[in-house]
Write a structure and sequence with these properties.
Aspartate Aminotransferase, domain 1; alpha/beta; seven-stranded mixed sheet; 2 domains; binds D-serine
Amino acid sequence: MGVLSALDPEVDAAILAEEKRQKDSVILIASENYTSQAVKEAQGSSFTEKYAEGYPGRRYYSGCEYADVIEILAQNRLKELFGATHANVQPHSGVQANTAVFFAYLKPGDTVLGMRLDHGGHLSHGSPVSFTGQYYNFVSYGVREDTELIDYDQVEDLAKQHHPKIIIAGASAYPRQIDFNKFREIADKVGAILLADVAHYSGLIAAGIYTDPVPHAQIITSTTQKTLRGPRGAFILTDEEHSAAIDKSVFPGAQGGPMMHTIAAKAVCFNEALQPSFKEYQQSVLQNSRAIADELQKIGMRIVSNGTDSHLLLVDVTTLGTTGRDSTKALESVGISVNANTIPFDKLPPMIGSGIRIGTPAITSRGFKEEDSRNIARMIGKVLQNLDNEEVLNSVRSDVMDLTRTFPVPGIDS
Ligand code: DSN
């Protein structure tokens, strides 16, 4: 019996239940993944206790010599991973990273150009319910109705019309490649800074199988827990010119003490991502995502933009007479975890949505290969075509149980 189970059985029971849920489910939430045991060990280490406000060699507290070692390791590994000039590993989350960029370069009311949330953007790219949409004047671009690909002509027209200080290239539900070079050309025409928010794609980028923003964007933000398979957290990469302003904006501008335990776990994650096996993993993430899209298309389902170049795909479930919300509930009832999502030009509200977003980082970390992914797609098809048929749902539930038993969960089973 562990210390936690003896001292706090309620918390311990919830943790064990969550581990079981993760083991027994097929997690297809595009932003989730499983970290290694090494990442978890670093995250649970004694760095939890250490205050280290400032940066390596310039701290406000004594006793930071090992915190410096950890932060420098994380910075250097991250720079090596992306071939970047400058790295800040302190942002606590993706929104915190974007906040620091906005705080460095914008005054309230300044104009920013970002992608519409309902076309695949992110809350912190100017949604009216986020502080970003309330403090700054966000103008939004979207995708073309015919191709469901980013409308670069619209991006350019809006940039010329509104002269934003920052243009954001990045998304949380856009399955295709983003042309960072084209974004930079547009940004240069209007004197804007290009911010690439690659929270979703950073693992694929590190492995060289998604467009690289580093040669094009002056500033890059990302989380670490998605395709990158690290702890919950974020980072910012910049060119030399923007490094000092960003560092100052992260601390003391937008954050206090860095979470040194998470920075230790980020350092472990970046080292894992530098290994050759990480590239194989990311290739498999993409292969699995394409296999699911292909298999769902074979059974007559519509995939937004007709496919995917990344770890995620969007399925339009209205062709089956259902909604994103109802599909998600039915899939959850058999142990398949996805999220309801709007699709471009959606007629339904965001809480219901016409689509589901499916992602393959987590199942690939468990070792799912292409045929397993096709198998999962067929199960998804069965559920969505038989939402009220208990017999079919029971049979898929049992298939999911059989499948999940054969794949260990990193960080829990190994
Ligand atoms: N909530 C994340 C996602 O699911 O994409 C983005 O912050």
